[in-house]
Write a structure and sequence with these properties.
Helix content: 25-40%
Largest sheet: 8 strands, parallel, barrel
Radius of gyration: 25 Å
Structural class: alpha/beta
CATH superfamily of the largest domain: Glycosidases
Oligomer: single chain
CATH topology of the largest domain: TIM Barrel
CATH architecture of the largest domain: Alpha-Beta Barrel
Length: about 675
């Protein structure tokens, strides 16, 4: 307020203005206590959110069931909330957007929690009416024509994102300009409202399920549209290459040496996938920058990105291969992902890890927010009076503990994403589960105040660029993603070692002396410089190094078995897992827990349990997760050994220093 205006303003109005300013939310991510930390209203907080879904019946904050669920989380001392909002919710026809629904969505949270900070998951999908007016902007597919899905009932907006339904190409300049202008319009309209004062962040969302996978990617081959062809032409010209057609299905399927594409023969396919992934990363940075530039206060910006585990062997077609590009952008404050899918990860006894390379995100000073979206054991009873019932409360508690501690011990946060009304209410709307959630939050907020210290002494190193050079059509490469990434990782986590995960490009950033073992998981692509760094810096000081599969077989220009010998230092072919001093080599990924336990024990890595149990450790806490019960010896790093009679299908929580049992 200008001083002259201030002098003319009644005292009561000045007071009201000052009170409003005091309530205005600011949000940012800064280093604090040894880790990237969310600051809200200039105060560091443990980043634990409650998030509504985009599903029908569960998305609007003023509806009865979402309101009941939010109220329970408010009573559990949650003050951070996330809500979904689609562009087509507020822009239903040509002309200005109507911000009323956005205000109402935030107001529903504030009515229950006046001090709340709210993040909007802002879906940038082109509205259906707009897409119908612009069919020339639609994504096209190499494996077939667009095939709209006809449905008789009401469905989620994102229901058919994996089908070849009309979806606007992510390369469309017309869509990008429209979505940018409407994002600015939304922000400017909200900035002057009471509800806008509670806005803490914008989570930019687009692509399959809002998660920046390319449309239809699991079963289809995008994008051969005119907008993508034009974008690919420009991408090639910028690299002094002649324009060529976006590759078709046959070109994408062609391989030259087992699972590999020869870089010299398959330049166009490799270039196309690089172009597509760089485009997606550029869009994320662009929209986060747009938010930052058009909000009057510090605001949190982030998105779903960095997915790596459980990508259905479709990494090149629709994964997130430009992690470094996004991590380098100052406009992006956080990345997020659900926990890895599938029985390897989510079942009782599985490790429950997130889909991202969390330690790389932390190394770049970004916050990571896990999406805890695993349903409890609700069962439909076909009974009007008790329509749903939890089948396994103790098991539900075990999985909640495991999933929540997974992100906390790695120095990060999470949100509970409530897909309800799966049981005619929210997923956790049971007093026993809410009691557990409240206890967890109290403990983690307390430990969050302490200096964060990671616990891992086993480091897994993964690459994303390798997927440009290996088979990308279904069934063409079962080694790089399925075996080396998923089965190897899940097996290693069963050893009770504390494991950390990073991107290959971040290896020079790592404090290597913390690690007893470094595993090169899917690093078939290594430059000469990277091979030298591994030999001279990583495989040194008695550190054990594991190479499972053809490490370094490709250097980006050609394929050669000599590269493998250069990085491992061991000539000749292998028939199985072999130890050569501190170097372990195998012709295939190591996928058996017994082999990992043997390697880790030989290297002197700390094994917390005397049996094959999952451990999440870090930030002053240790959580063992048990599938089978029975006696255990839990060995802490302090030397203290705790005898446990572990209940089957359970998770326990201990202080990492004293051994005090907290849950």
């Amino acid at each position: 307020m200008d001083r002259r205006d201030f002098l003319k303003t009644p005292a009561s109005a000045v007071l009201a203005t000052n009170l409003a300013a005091a309530r205005e939310v600011t949000a940012e991510v800064k280093e604090w206590n040894g880790k990237p930390t969310l600051f809200v209203r200039e105060q560091p907080v443990y980043a634990s959110f409650y998030a509504l879904t985009d599903c029908l019946g569960g998305r609007w904050t003023w509806d009865e069931m979402p309101r009941i669920s939010m109220e329970r989380f408010v009573k559990a001392r949650f003050r951070l909330f996330q809500v979904d909002l689609f562009l087509e919710d507020v822009w239903t026809r040509e002309g200005p957007i109507d911000v009323t629904l956005a205000r109402k969505q935030i107001r529903g949270v504030l009515d229950l929690c006046p001090e709340a900070a709210v993040v909007i998951r802002w879906h940038l999908n082109a509205p259906k009416w707009w897409a119908e007016r612009n069919p020339e902007e639609w994504t096209q597919y190499a494996n077939g024509a667009i095939a709209p899905v006809e449905r008789d009932g009401a469905v989620r907006i994102i229901m058919d994102d994996l089908q070849r339904t009309p979806r606007v190409s992510l390369a469309s300049k017309v869509w990008r300009e429209m979505a940018t202008s409407k994002t600015v319009e939304l922000l400017q309209a909200l900035a002057g409202t009471p509800e806008g004062a509670a806005l803490a962040g914008i989570h930019v969302a687009c692509g399959v399920y809002g998660e920046w996978h390319y449309w239809g990617f699991i079963r289809n081959e995008p994008d051969t549209s005119r907008p993508m062809q034009e974008h690919f032409d420009a991408w090639r010209r910028n690299r002094s290459k002649a324009p060529v057609a976006v590759p078709g299905l046959a070109a994408r399927a062609a391989l030259d040496d087992g699972i590999f594409r020869d870089p010299q023969k398959r330049e166009v396919v490799i270039d196309y996938y690089r172009c597509q992934h760089e485009l997606v990363a550029d869009l994320i940075v662009h929209f986060c920058r747009t938010v930052k530039r058009n909000w009057p206060r510090k605001i949190l910006t982030g998105t779903f990105y960095g997915y790596f585990f459980s990508l259905f062997e479709r990494q090149a077609t629709g994964g997130h291969l430009c992690l470094q590009q996004v991590l380098a952008a100052p406009e992006v404050d956080y990345l997020s992902a659900p926990q890895a899918y599938g029985t390897l990860y989510r079942d009782m006894g599985g490790c429950g890890i997130t889909r991202s390379l969390v330690e790389s995100i932390r190394l770049h000073g970004k916050l990571f927010l896990d999406e805890m979206d695993q349903s409890p054991s609700w069962k439909w009873l076909n009974n009007v009076d008790t329509a749903f019932k939890l089948e396994d409360v103790s098991g539900d508690v075990a999985l909640i503990r495991r999933n929540v501690l997974e992100s906390y011990t790695r120095g990060m946060g999470l949100w509970y994403y409530d897909f309800g009304p799966a049981n005619n209410s929210g997923w956790w709307l049971d007093r026993r589960l809410m009691s557990e959630i409240a206890k967890l939050k109290e403990i983690l907020e307390r430990y969050h105040q302490k200096l964060y210290q990671p616990a891992g002494d086993v480091l897994f190193v993964y690459d994303t660029s390798v997927f440009y050079y290996t088979g990308s059509t279904p069934g063409s490469d079962r080694m790089t993603d399925d075996a080396a990434v998923n089965r190897a990782t899940a097996a290693a986590w069963q050893t009770s070692a504390a494991i950390e995960t990073i991107h290959l490009a971040d290896l020079p950033r790592v404090q290597l002396d913390r690690f007893k073992v470094v595993v090169f998981a899917n690093t078939w692509l290594l430059t000469a410089e990277q091979r030298k760094f591994i030999r001279q810096r990583v495989a040194a000081e008695g550190r054990h190094v594991v190479f499972g599969g053809p490490a370094g077989y490709c250097d980006g220009r050609k394929l050669s078995a000599s590269f493998v010998e250069q990085v491992t230092g061991i000539p000749g072919k292998r028939t199985g897992l072999e130890q050569h001093g501190n170097i372990w080599v195998s012709p295939a990924p190591v996928t058996e827990t017994a082999d990992w336990r043997r390697i880790f024990a030989a290297a002197g890595a700390h094994l917390y349990s005397d049996q094959n149990d999952v451990i999440h450790a870090g930030g002053g806490l240790v959580l063992p997760h048990f599938n089978t019960g029975g006696p255990r010896r839990l060995a802490l790093r302090t030397g203290k050994v705790i005898g446990i009679d572990a209940p089957a299908r359970s998770s326990l929580l201990f202080d990492a220093s004293t051994g005090e049992r907290l849950l």
